[in-house]
Amino acid sequence: MLDEKNGGFAPLVFEKDILIRSEQVDMTRRLRISEMFMLLEKASIAHTEELGCTRHKTLDRGLLWIITRQSLEVSEWPEYDENITVRSWQGDMMHVFFPRFYEVLKDGKTIARGEALWMLIDEKTREMIMPEEYGISIPGAPGAGDMMIPPVRMPEGGALLEKELTAEFSRIDINGHMNNARYFDLIDDETEPQRLAGVRPKKITANYVNELKLGERFMFRAFEKDDVRYYEGASDKIKFRISMEF
User: Are residues 168 and 225 in the same domain?
Assistant: First the structure.
């Protein structure tokens, strides 16, 4: 099914072939977790623009795209110099949410599936907006239904790790807050032995609750229960919660 755009047609399923470059992998030559999520984020933005919702309808009007929840299941993490295909499509709009679905393929085989809930906020007030009030509507692909990404709940008991960190300038994105994908770099830094041993998560669920602004200090905590690792960032409010199943 196609959606008419500027006298042409934009497919409701976005697809892009990607060569994994050296700067996208860690020293084990596997794709960084943060880079995987950045590839999905870039596919989302590129497809949204293809479907006619360009920066002139959002960023230039003071509206920012953010992700509130996302999940990803991975059977194989791509390596340096491998070719993969990233596919993305939108489901039916859910009031203020824009659900997105993803597939990553290698040699025609699906190696990852994911989903994310996107929404728009006002750049000044940082509050969510009602898309219809701005004339924003994006068509969903046929058969792409609603999603239910569960909340991540921290297990009871003491933290394995508790460390105070700062939202540094290098981790702040165009929206003026710490980019969601950068949280996974923090996790990589704190789990270096596992990464060097080739241990990679098979399922990731993330809840992004409140923004981390430039210079803001927060506590980074790690927990573990039943082979699942949990990570949390918090100051006066919970900032993010992430679970990883191995």
Answer: yes
Query: Could you tell me the sign of the dihedral formed by the alpha carbons of 3, 9, 10, 12, in that order?
Result: positive
Q: d(Cα 3, Cα 211) in Å, to the nearest integer?
A: 34
Query: If you compute the radius of gyration of the chain from its CA atoms, what whole number of angstroms results?
Result: 18
Instruction: Give the 3-state secondary structure of residue 46.
Output: helix
For residue 158, count other CB atoms closer than 10 A to its CB: 7
What CATH number is associated with residue 37?
3.10.129.10
Distance separating alpha carbons of residues 196 and 97, to the nearest angstrom: 38
Q: Give the whole-angstrom CA distance, residue 84 versus residue 19.
A: 6
Asked if 175 and 117 sit in the same domain, the reply is no
Same domain as 198, residue 129: no
pLDDT digits (tens, 9 = 90+) for 156-207: 988 999 999 999 999 999 999 999 999 999 999 988 888 888 889 999 999 9
